[in-house]
Amino acid sequence: MRKFANLLLVTLFIAPLCFISCSNGKVKSLNPNGDSELALLMRSMYDDGMLTKQALLEGKAPVVNVKYHQLHTAKATEPEKVATPNYDAFANAYEASVKSFLESDTASRIESYHSMVNACMNCHQKICPGPTVRIKHLFLNETELASLESQKE
């Protein structure tokens, strides 16, 4: 019985060490072919958008930290999709919506925020529809809008 207990104790100590040492510590790419600059930029834009949404809900002044102007220069996973006048027009529209949002006063900030999210959605509906499910999370829902309205009162 004592041998079994010792064996169990050694196994419980060594097994986790094997798993830890076998892990290479690298974060797996979401794309099996590697992540493009544009994909990484857009993930940052999404994360930044969620922080902006949270700031709005908390009544704080939002800050846009992502380098959205890189939409024109970041390398895409499928370059042919962004090498079009349509993509450039959508990128320009998004840039304009961000500038408008950043310059908006408190009274028009929510409307400007939704315009910015709509600019993302419009592009993705025409060029790359996959992320639209995620982009929908950026919109303020009815409950969140009602909460913001009650904060004004």
Automatic annotation (TrEMBL):
How far does the signal peptide extend, from start to end residue?
Answer: 1-20
Superkingdom assignment: Bacteria
Q: Which UniProt keywords apply?
A: Signal
Signal as UniProt keyword:
yes
Record protein name field: Cytochrome c domain-containing protein
